[in-house]
Amino acid sequence: MEQTTNLKLNKPLISDKYKISIYDENLDVIDANIGNLNAHSSNSTIHVTSEEKEKINYTIITNEQIDSLFE
Q1: Residues 5-55 pLDDT 10s
Q2: Nearest Cα residue to 11 out of 22, 33, 20, 21
Q3: Which residues face 11 on adjacent strands?
Q4: Cα(36)–Cα(49) distance, rounded to whole angstroms?
């Protein structure tokens, strides 16, 4: 039996008899991956919101300023 590249879903061949268990297994894999995606995207400790990005003070320093620190 072949499998899909990313989620490794089972792909029965045309000559295989249809088995509801294969379909159910594929649905479980899809559901688990969607659950992982939802958990990842809602994790506020690993993502920065737009509001948080605006609060970050980005300082641009030129090469000349860096060089002057070592004179």
Answers
A1: 999 999 999 999 989 999 999 999 999 999 888 777 777 677 777 787 778
A2: 22
A3: 2
A4: 20
Residues written for the chain: 71
Which tokens in the block code for residue 42? 């809602």
**pTM, rounded to two decimals:** 0.54
> 26 with 9: CB under 8 angstroms?
yes
Whether the Cβ atoms of residue 9 and residue 30 lie closer than 8 Å to each other? yes
User: Which residues are paired to 3 by β-bridges?
Assistant: 10
4-to-18, 23, 46, 64 alpha-carbon distances in Å: 17, 13, 29, 54
Rounded distance between C-alpha atoms, residue 50 and residue 47, angstroms? 10
Bridge partners of residue 66, in order along the sequence: none
Look up residue 55 and give its two tokens. 């609060």
